[in-house]
Specification:
The protein is mainly beta. It has two helices and 38 strands. The longest helix is centred in the first third of the chain and has 38 residues.
Length: 647
């Protein structure tokens, strides 16, 4: 049994080995008595149908043609319906259309800048359908404000109109103030935005209203050369004139300079930085002039644009114009001058020279040819301007002639400057002259306020090209000399005169107190000076008594160091000449020592006055020696009352 079982198990193991082995191959067994039959299977799943009859084919073709015709007719109907709907809405042929909505705007055709413009807007729905969610959108032109003194510019506004029934009219009033240059036109856009009841489409209709701005509250103009040489100084002249029936308040003016412009100076000086002027209040027909000097750098033939704005000062930003009343812009083209000019004053090249009055001034004009073609018939003219010029002191160098009638100095071949008759390419030369100024206060008491000497230099000559075409060329430079004011301190010490009664022995006696009155006077000639301060000090043996006249003067005494400071404030032109001098008096006490017997002791230290000249921007200073007991300015005083005695 066991042997039989083992043989069976062995066969099973061999069968598994062949079945699960890598080299297993299936060998179908063929049963005896049967033949092998081949079967052909079609690809795909569709069964072969019998051929269709001709009648059935005709029915199917007719059915497909009918469906196609219906589909095409539907598409054509949809397109025609859509086009018709749009056309009927736009043309007004339908029951509702924008052409049946009237927008009427009534108002003046012109208005002055700064005056209120009132427009009446009427919207009428002539459709048989209600207009829903109607809005009026207003787009304002540049320079539109709610009121004259408003800071916020109007740009766009939306007003809800709600429902507008058939044949209903809705009225709106729009008020605004326009600013800008005179003789310009402004356009205000009104857009009606709405949809009709039963429709989801939002439609809009635009109506434009044009108004002419007849004038500006401020007439503004800017004078500037059309062409200027590289780094050649020139002048910009800005003119303002009030065109309003009311006083314009709190005005400022701002200038936008192009890149490459270098500010040299201005009259009057800017209030902030180099480009903002505080105009203040301008009554009706009031005029202001601002002159700016500078140079511009850049490429040849490059255009530079200067822009000027004037209007109401911004409430928050001091460097900005809040409400712009007017603006103007001009351009200048950079060219290379045919003749380069340079002006030296007392050997110094500076756009603006500061000098003291009655001082000799030496002017040298250096010229050089920048042309590649020779220049003929050259001429240099210098125009002198300013009432402060002493005409009798003008002295041109050899080759120049001074025409006192119009204040012009001329150099050319006719005056003896032969070098200008023919100027070769690259050639250079020099002409010059000297002059002096008059006193800042003349013998008749006239004060020259803010005195300056303006020098305008024009050079010209003929240039002939290779083809024989002749042209006259010219170039221009300018220079200014400002004269400082004379600020002076005049100190006096008195005993018998003055606002106080003095006590004590004269001559002063050792170990006994004698009181004196010190009087300080400040005088000033031509320019406003501010702030002005006077300083001095008391020696250790002197005593500050604290009596001051006038009592409202700002004067103080420091016990430590004995310094006296008088804050004078602003000293106007002509003070001490056509106006009373600024003056203060105070009382001091002297207790001399026996060591000072026979001497004339000092009762104050050096006295110094200083202040800033608001016209020239320079600091002025004047010094005087300290006062002593020799009261030479007291008419009742005798010289033998000055030395200290012991008995």
């Amino acid at each position: 049994m066991n042997l039989m079982q083992e043989k069976k198990d062995e066969k099973i193991r061999e069968l598994k080995k062949r079945l699960y082995g890598k080299g297993f191959k299936e060998k179908p067994e063929r049963i005896a008595g049967f033949k092998k039959k081949e079967y052909r299977v079609k690809e795909g799943w569709m069964s072969e149908e019998p051929p269709m009859s001709p009648v059935k084919k005709i029915k199917i073709i007719k059915r497909h043609a009918t469906i196609k015709r219906v589909l095409i007719a539907s598409i054509v109907f949809f397109i025609v319906a859509s086009v018709s709907a749009v056309y009927m809405i736009r043309s007004g042929s339908n029951i509702f259309s924008l052409k049946n909505v009237d927008i009427m705007i009534t108002g003046p055709v012109s208005v002055n800048g700064g005056e209120e413009l009132t427009l009446d807007v009427s919207i009428t729905n002539r459709n048989e359908t209600v207009m829903e969610f109607a809005n009026l959108i207003i787009e304002y032109p540049e320079g539109s404000y709610k009121t004259f003194d408003s800071q916020k510019e109007l740009t766009r506004a939306r007003e809800s109109l709600g429902r507008i029934n058939p044949n209903e009219t809705v009225n709106k009033t729009v008020s605004l103030v326009l600013f800008g240059s005179g003789n310009t036109k402004k356009e205000i856009s009104f857009t009606l935005e709405s949809r009709f009841e039963g429709s989801s489409a939002t439609l809009d209709k635009i109506e434009l209203y044009e108004v002419a701005l007849a004038s500006s509250p401020v007439n503004l103009s800017m004078g500037i050369p059309e062409e200027i040489g590289i780094k050649q100084e020139f002048e910009i002249i800005i003119n303002l004139e009030s065109n309003s029936n009311n006083t314009l308040s709190n005005l400022i003016l701002k200038v936008d300079y192009p890149f490459g412009f270098t500010f040299s100076g201005a009259s009057p000086e800017p209030a902030q930085g180099k480009n903002i002027w505080e105009i203040g209040d301008m009554p009706k027909a009031d005029k202001r002039v601002i002159k700016i000097r500078g140079t511009v750098d850049g490429q040849e033939n490059e255009e530079k644009i200067f822009a000027v704005y004037t209007g109401l000062k911004h409430s928050k930003d001091e460097d900005a114009v809040g409400t712009i009343y007017n603006s103007v812009s001009e351009q200048i083209v950079i060219t290379k001058p045919f003749l380069g000019l340079k002006v030296l004053v007392n050997g110094t090249e500076t756009p603006e020279y500061i000098s003291r009055s009655k001082k000799s001034l030496r002017f040298d004009v250096l010229w050089s040819s920048n042309s590649f073609i020779k220049i003929t018939d050259g001429i240099i003219e210098v125009k002198l301007s300013g009432d402060i010029v002493d005409r009798f002191s003008v002295s041109p160098d050899k080759g120049g002639f001074y025409k006192s009638l119009d204040g012009t100095i001329v150099w050319n071949d006719r005056t003896g400057e032969n070098k200008l008759s023919v100027i070769e390419p690259g050639e250079n030369g020099r002409v010059g002259f000297t002059l002096q100024s008059l006193p800042l206060v003349d013998k008749k008491g006239r004060v020259f306020t803010n005195p300056e000497i303006a020098i305008s230099i024009n050079a010209s000559g003929n240039q002939v090209t290779d083809v024989g075409v002749s042209s006259r060329l010219s170039t221009f430079v300018s220079k200014k000399v400002k004269l400082e004011s004379n600020l002076e301190i005049v100190p006096r010490a008195v005993y018998y005169t003055g606002p106080f009664s003095n006590t004590g022995p004269l001559p002063p006696k050792a170990d006994e107190e004698t009181t004196y009155t010190i009087i300080l006077s400040v005088i000033n000639t031509s320019n406003s000076v501010s702030p002005v301060v006077v300083k001095t000090n008391l020696p250790t043996y002197m005593r500050w008594l604290g009596t001051v006249s006038p009592s409202e003067e700002d004067i103080s005494f420091n016990e430590v160091g004995g310094e006296i400071i008088w804050n004078v404030g602003t000293v106007v032109p002509g003070t001490g000449f056509v106006k009373s001098a600024r003056e203060v008096a105070f009382q001091v006490g002297l207790i001399p020592s026996i060591s000072q017997r026979g001497r004339i002791p000092s009762i104050t230290g050096e006295i110094i006055v200083s202040g800033k000249d608001t016209f020239t921007g320079t600091t002025l200073k004047d010094k005087k020696k300290g006062l002593n007991t020799n009261l030479s300015t007291d008419p009742s005083f005798s010289i033998n009352q000055a030395p200290v005695r012991t008995k």
